[in-house]
Amino acid sequence: MTEEVITIDENSFKLGEAVAAVGGIDVSYCYQCGKCSTGCPVAYEMDLTPTQLIHAMQLGLQDLVYKSNTMWLCASCLTCSTRCPQGVDIAEAFDTVKILMQRNKQKPQVPDVLAAHKSFAQNLRWFGRMYELGMVAVLKLRTRKFTQDLGMGMKMIKKHKFNLLPGFEGSRETRNIFRRVKKQEKA
Amino acid sequence: MKYAYYPGCSLHSTGQEFDISLRAVCDKLGVELVEVEKWVCCGATMAHNLSKLLATSLPMANLALLPEMGLDEVIVPCAECFSRFKIAQHNVKTDKKLRRNVVEVIHKDCNDDAKVIHPLTIFAEEPLISKIPGLVKRDLSGLKVACYYGCLLTRPPRITEFDIDGYPESMDKVLRAAGIAILEWSRKTVCCGGSFALSKPDIVVNLSNKIIEDARSAGADAIAVACPMCHANLDTRQDDMEKKFGAHPRMPILYFTQLMGYSFGLSPEELLFDKHLTEVDSIAKLVN
Which residues of A touch B195 (CB under 8 A)? Predict the structure, then answer.
């Protein structure tokens, strides 16, 4: 990262406040010790280290945060949240940024990851329990990566690892849950 | 001993070997599992990326089914489900507003006192741990196994309340009691790439390969796991590891319950050894 002057004004704290309001995480406790980044198994793929992203959140640098690939590459292994000496749940803070981005219709830097989450959610709403073949099909349509993992998928079908047809146990329940969650989050 | 049982989606499909072998082992140990009838998906590794209310409501909707069964302890073998159940209980205990919202979503009260238990916890404790050596029928003392716990059972420890964070011992203890040679190694709880199985497979190949390499350098003939996601990543990506790093790992990956069942004299067919993409037949040669 290059050095630059950042002007702090009343708008600077809005992002941190939104993360606290939506996810219940107060990022202001972070003092940049770097323990989260040292333990992160995926830090090598990220443009900002977890510490830098949390710092950017503290400073309210919304554009920098939203344009980062870091939270989309978080594997949710929870090493950072476990090790933080200040008790900041970093992984939950990243989840919250992802949720805020979806509410604000912001494009993710790693679209395939969001596509996988959405395919999963759709599957769950329809079937109540995960129907893996259906989920993979929807994901392929979303990402257009039709040949990725085709060989592995065929082997898994041959081994009867997947159910070929979906069940609908609990689908009424999950449809209701999704509907009520949506209603509450709109209110 | 009688428990409610929440298998979760994976154990009904890609991780069915875990379900079948767990049931078989519980049967031998005299543990009765009663499957929760109308269970739904817990939201797994995805829902928390979309909505905290959704990610908390799905596990709580499942726990709300327990009082109808007259049980308040539930066995949750899948590490993902286990983690989501524990985190959801923690969320509703610590956030009153969220709790109220969850009650409105699930139309039932929050069952935050239900005991969510991983099978390793009860297997590693009395009375079951002392029962295990008496059930051993096959001598597996020549089989060297690295126990891999992954992320979600142990982290964060204040929420999962499972074993020692960083260097857990319960699986080691259980498999040692079943007569298997257990190795000390350093990647017991290092991430395998988890939910990137479908969206960022290159990350999975990198991280899982390091785990297998480390187990091999410790001298492992096989890796034991307790999570269907870890199993999928370590087992199904070995061809990709060969493409990327040159050598095929050919490392058998088994659920700890399959190894227990094998030690108890169950056949490879009964334990669904043939379901794995990477062959596990090599362990048969190590039976004394």
Answer: 75-76, 116
